[in-house]
Amino acid sequence: MKKTRVLVVDDSAVIRRAISDLLTADPEIEVIGHAANGKLALEQIQNLHPDVITLDVEMPVMDGLETLRNLRQIDNHVPVIMCSTLTERGAIATLDALSLGASCYVTKPHTSGSIEESLDSLRRELLPKVKALGGHRRFLSRPTPVLRPTPEEGKPDSPATQPLTQPTLSPGPLPSSTATAPAPLPVGTPKKTLSSAPLPAEKRPSQSRKVSDKSKSEPARSEAASPPAPRPAPAEPYVVQQRTSPPTRVDLVVIGVSTGGPNALAVLLPALPKNLPVPVLIVQHMPPVFTKLVAERLNQQCALSVHEAAEGDAIAVGSILIAPGDFHMVIERRGDKGTVRLNKQPPENFCRPAADVLFRSAVESYGSGLLAVVLTGMGCDGMIGCETVRKAGGQVIVQDAETSVVWGMPGSVAERGLAEAILPIKEIASEIVRRVSLQRKP
Predict the structure, then answer these.
(1) How confident is the model over 132-168, as pLDDT tens digits?
(2) Are 113 and 166 in the same domain?
(3) Which of 111, 144, 146, 323 is a plausible cystine mate for 329, CB 3.0–4.6 Å?
(4) Catalytic residues
(5) What local confidence, expressed as pLDDT, does residue 191 receive?
(6) Is the Cβ–Cβ distance between 299 and 319 less than 8 Å?
(7) Residue 76, Cβ neighbours under 10 Å: how many?
(8) What are phi and psi of 437, to 5 degrees?
(9) Residue-number span of the structural domain to which 66 is assigned
(10) Which residue ranges of the chain lie beneath pLDDT 70?
(11) Same domain, yes or no, for 101 and 163?
(12) What is the pLDDT at residue 239?
């Protein structure tokens, strides 16, 4: 098998050596070069053509952000893994880097503790991402699936199946339904007009959390730790588990996302209309500091209200809640009212928060009135949850391989036959809106 070729960029000779040693110890990876700053890195990139780049944020001469700006002008495809500190300053710089085109990030080890523990932590986080990103590039050299829902055979499109007139989104029609044709939901107006530059993260009062589960905390990783094998393109279209009855009304949307998630959410969520008649809950695999900042930035871009979830938050129409890092998010429902509960139960799929935990809890509270969406990410978190959603009569859609940073999570759902649609990220908001519109009166 072809090795993944990596260029290591960091101003510290010690860090360059440490990263190189742990990468070259893996037989599937080859370190082809080093650079002490962004200017030297850009010169080597054009000569060496690496499969993956590890890039430090803070460097002399040319830092990581400026390097990314220049790199994306000459190569818009090579995956870049940012190396960041687990601090608010480091998180802000990392999110800026993701908005400039970085694929994902790893957090640098804490200075406390032994060197062996620090290197082991970095190895567990970095190796799977290097392999997954390198494998994904090779996977995309082959045809990848897109599955759009089509009307029932022999029946003309009804108004309910016609595409919504939303800007930049062009999904195919939904299956025919006996429901009354819904009125299109207009796209909301964002809170602020955005520039192309990264938005500054606002300072907000932190919300104290009362954790519903007092069990001992276990070390949680921000993303799936096991590298998924590259998924070969299928010879035939995926076979979807067929419905025995028309979809029921959607009352809640749940989203699971990991590697590449901040950029995917920045495309999807601002396209949702202000009058979307259902709440949205999201699990994004990230550490605590990061989830808060992601929510704050998205809140500035979206017509809907976006916040990091806190214990006891109401699950209400007009709101998007993102699970806080290192906490599972579940739902407690009494009558028509849903409430967020946070806990530190053991990680699932190496993750806390985990999409499977949220999806399972959502099925218990909302049953068939659930729409599950799985976006870009490593591993298979969300697959078992989607199986539970489908068994309960709910609906499942996933992001396609071409627009995913890694097609692990959505690919595992598609291969299981659970996805009713496999769509580019720019088409998913419109698909959500139409599915939510079904079974609702105009």
Answers:
(1) 998 876 666 666 778 888 654 333 343 333 333 333 3
(2) no
(3) 323
(4) 258, 285, 381
(5) 52
(6) no
(7) 8
(8) -70, -30
(9) 4-139
(10) 109-114, 137-143, 150-238, 442
(11) no
(12) 72
Q: Please name the amino acid found at residue 274.
A: K
Residue type, 177: S
d(CA 147, CA 93): 36
* CATH number of domain containing 126: 3.40.50.2300
Domain membership of residue 274 (yes or no) is: yes
Do 177 and 81 sit in the same domain of this protein?
no
Residue 149 lies in a domain: no
pLDDT at 207: 40
Is 121 found in the same domain as 13?
A: yes
% the chain with pLDDT above 70 = 76
What pTM, to 2 d.p., does this model score?
A: 0.81
What's the CA dihedral at 420, 137, 135, 69 to 10 degrees? Answer: -110
Decide if 32 contacts 7 (C-beta within 8 A): yes
**Residue 219 CB contacts under 8 Å (≥ 6 apart), including other chains:** none
Tally of domains in the chain:
2
The Cα–Cα gap between 316 and 301 comes to: 19
Asked if residue 221 and residue 184 are part of one domain, the reply reads: yes
Q: What is the DSSP letter of 217?
A: P
Q: What is the DSSP string of 275-297?
A: T-SS-EEEEE---HHHHHHHHHH
Q: Extract the tokens encoding 37.
A: 């700053």
Report d(CA 308, CA 89) in Å as an integer: 18
For residue 145, tell me if it sits in a domain.
no
| Shared-domain flag, residues 128 and 177 | no
Confidence (pLDDT) at 121: 81
Check whether residue 266 and residue 317 sit in a common domain: yes
Closest CA to 331 of 373, 359, 302, 301: 359
pLDDT of res. 89? 85
Residues 90 and 170 reside in one and the same domain:
no
